[in-house]
Amino acid sequence: MLNWLRCEHGQELVEYALVLPLLLALLLGSAQLALVILAHNTIHHAASEGTRFGSLSDNANRPDSIIAVVYQVTDAAGLDRADLTFALPFKQADNKTIRVQIDYSMVPVFPIGNISLRAISTRLIELQ
């Protein structure tokens, strides 16, 4: 008479419905973390390439050329140029160093607000 109370045919479906949102959140969170790490490494590499290019004495006073080098690196990684901002001027007041600062604002997969990343690279200007 109470055999229908012991029936467990729908138990797996209920457990799956409870665990699936947690697994999807974990999977999407891992993917978002990978994208953030990729963007972080890309802007650091771009800042380093910008300072390397700008450290040559002829290029230190040409910010457009330095920005073009940075855009080459970020475009190759698929970052949006509209989300990149630069701190100008690149050549420092002592006229011996060059500094490239890049700020990148990315929109995450989960709507939790923008993620702001910053890369700063400084190098001595080579005199020829």
Description:
With 128 residues, this protein is of the alpha+beta class. The protein has one domain. It is built from 2 helices and 3 strands; from the N terminus they run ααβββ. A 3-stranded antiparallel β-sheet has the order 1-2-3, covered by helices on one side. Strand 2 (97-106) and strand 3 form a beta hairpin. The protein is rod-shaped, with a radius of gyration of 25 Å. The model has no long low-confidence stretch (mean pLDDT 87).
Approximate shape? rod-shaped
The portion of residues assigned to helices is 40-55%
| Major pleated sheet | 3 strands, antiparallel
For the record, give the distance between the C-alpha atoms at the N and C termini, rounded to a whole number: 97 Å
> Poorly predicted ranges (pLDDT <50, ≥5 residues)?
none
Strand proportion: 15-25%
Radius of gyration: 25 Å
The domain count comes to 1
> Number of helix segments?
2
Label the structural class. Answer: alpha+beta
Number of strands: 3
- What is the mean pLDDT? 87
With strands numbered from the N-terminus, the spatial order across the biggest sheet is 1-2-3
Order of helices and strands: HHEEE
Topology:
Layout (H helix, E strand, L loop, with lengths): L10 H44 L8 H15 L6 E3 L10 E10 L8 E10 L4
Antiparallel strand pairs: 1-2, 2-3
